[in-house]
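In response to reviewer comment 3 from the previous cycle, which asked for concrete evidence that the modeling workflow produces usable outputs, we include below a single protein chain processed end to end. The sequence was submitted unchanged, and the resulting structure tokens are shown without manual editing.
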Amino acid sequence: MESISNLFSSKYTFRIPNYQREYAWGRAQIEDFWDDLNYLQPNRSHHTGTLTLEEVPDSQVQNIWGKDFVLINQLGRKPYHVVDGQQRLTTVVILLCAMLEKYKSFSGTVFVNGAYTPAQVEDNYLRWKNPATGDNHYFFDYGVNGASRDFLHKEIFRDPAFASVILTPTAYTRNLEGAKNFFDRRLKNISLPELDNLFAKLTMMMKFGVDELANTYSAYEVFETMNNRGKPLSKLEILKNRLMYLAALLNSSALQSSINSAWSEIYTQLGKNPERILNDDEFLRTHWEMFAAVNRDDSAYLLDVKFSANRLRSANFRKEHNVGELTASEISAYIESLKAAAEPWYNINFPDGALTKGESYWINRLNRLEMPRYFEALILAMVLKNVSPIKRVELLAEIENFVFVNKIAGRRSDFRESRFSSEAHLLYTDRKDISTITQEAKSEFAAHKARSVKMFVDSYASDHEFKKIVSEYILQEYEWEASQNFGATADSSMFIPGTNRKVAGLTLEHIYPQTPPISSYTKFNALTAPQKKMYRTGIGNLLLIPSALNTSLSNNGFSVKSAEYAGGSISEREVADVEGDWTPAEVENRSERILKFVNAHWKLSLNAGDIAKLVP
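The workflow returned the following structure tokens.
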């Protein structure tokens, strides 16, 4: 077992190899690490984890290490790739740097544990400063240049050489930043004796087991099998490692460089919005459906067959799976396609400003409706193929109507998936044009619409309750339509027009509440329990209001609620205009207005009898 002190002050120089995922720990893992350290009892050691290391062969050292070769050449340190354990090791380095910054913040001359200055600790644990050049050479670093290495040097090491570097945020740099901020907050009010105690525990009592690998190529396989012990690897992260392995087997450094470039771009796009980092496996599956026309559940085929090393090794495997021998050009075509899809995927998830207003209008609505995933692949193909925005909007409008009608009908999310799951691939490979897809979609949607509408009428008439996502969507669109009559221009995907209330902060309010006060809503008292539920859950009794306001109003009487509604959205003000109490008749009237809107807005062709069935 090696202490942190021994690991960094002895023979090791660590680099994160290019096939590794970068820093993936989130708050949960960092809090666990902090708790392990913080609650470690004096004179007790803690097994922090196991480091699996691969010594870098002499033939590769100079190419990989660059200027840092002086650490091996002049200091005699041995170069190692971290195959497993890099998340914990990176966390240790981030915490060490945060501690040293804290030591420097105390006034006067400060000694770490009464023995070393912070600068001496940096020399022992983090870096060697070349006296001839003044350059800093770090004992732990990323093995390739990129966003994570830039962030590590500029924001964590505080390396002056990186002061002017413009950082590119990625999903991984967000995690590095989150860890640094977490430790800074924990150390903010700590005293010098407490910091000394924490530093001693980290450097002397937190210990790693160390395993060294001998076979160069085995490192790729070890990474894939071992790195799920901490935070599980995503399939996208596993795929990168697999492709790097295959490139090594094909002896193609150019292909490895292309893979690194592609994954850097992908994670830059996935992490571009810090408020919502996009899921990497959702991106991978959607692209694969477009690229290869397979069901999303078959994405494991990527690793098990398409990019299996057995395609290079075994003729029997190739015959069994009806595939040819894997080539560098096949891998290159795939990764270039994946890289090209990253920015369009971001734009589909955050369309405002990236796409035309018409496209944003419909994609925002489809995102709020949680459209079936097979339509996401089709939209990705439309954007990648530079289909004209006018034609995109035409198809998007048809898809939105189809998805909404299926939602209110209660159909499964995979309804007609078998029909449409291949359309993205056909468009992407130029085997079908957008006009043909749109016309066929219109015919397909129309063929099922009447049945879906009947299912909706029968279902809603029995319980007068939409699913939450449908209720929210209808009320957002109802508000948007009303805002247009008042000349508002804000998009309801961003704001409730006429207010500064963001849709993301809104929740469903039951005007007639679950537990009404005795003095209000008295007209409901004569109803049976099932009837009360029907009126309470009906669309006419629902409002979208800020969650904090919803909590404060809760089961208040209508006069209290109405006073708050009067300063809100158009829909709220509509309800606030009701004189006297909120009654079953008011629920019926508002339900009828909203249902007539639904009928016209989504062209449901409901007749007066249908509307009557749907009103409580």
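The CA atoms of residues 347 and 354 lie 6 Å apart. We consider this sufficient to address the reviewer's concern, and the full set will be provided in the supplementary archive.
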